[in-house]
């Protein structure tokens, strides 16, 4: 699947800088000791606690703060800040892969970001690429799912990423009475997993499935 890099928004041939990229650069400066939180608070005329929230990725850079920080952080004359009135493109982290198949260890090796597929995504949300075919009635191998790790309550028929006691994860649908993880697959080799049979942990609820048209499960 081809994903448009969220940082490469173009205006008159100039790369656009979004709030996510500015915040990450600010965090880098703070972590390296190149600037102090009190300096940023004074620069932006905000309480120091707001700077701490940005450093902890709990607050976004506001529209009016973006050009100030771009200039202060020396992010380059070749880059342009989003114009007044434009909606910033928010990035969410892509943490690697999750198996739609047997239990196995998730791969969390990626540090890249993708554009938020729709507005209002939770700040805690992150993306995983699906591998395997145990959910191919819903989504095929290579599609992307968005996870909310703060939404862990189990409800019948909803989709979740689950980790077992061995640290392995899987992407499945949860069903009740009895409690079980169900593959949604055309392959009969994939079996229902009774959740009562072993220790498990809910990593997060799948709040969105995104794919390119050729990945739709239409067979």
From TrEMBL:
One of its GO terms (molecular function) is DNA binding. It holds the Pfam family Peptidase_S24. The keyword Membrane does not apply. Gene3D superfamilies: Umud Fragment, subunit A (2.10.109.10). Residues 94-207 form the Peptidase S24/S26A/S26B/S26C domain. Keywords: DNA-binding, Transcription, Transcription regulation. It comes from the Bacteria. InterPro entries: LexA-like, LexA/Signal_pep-like_sf, Peptidase_S24_S26A/B/C. The keyword rRNA processing does not apply. PANTHER family: FELS-1 PROPHAGE TRANSCRIPTIONAL REGULATOR, PTHR40661. This is SOS-response transcriptional repressor LexA.
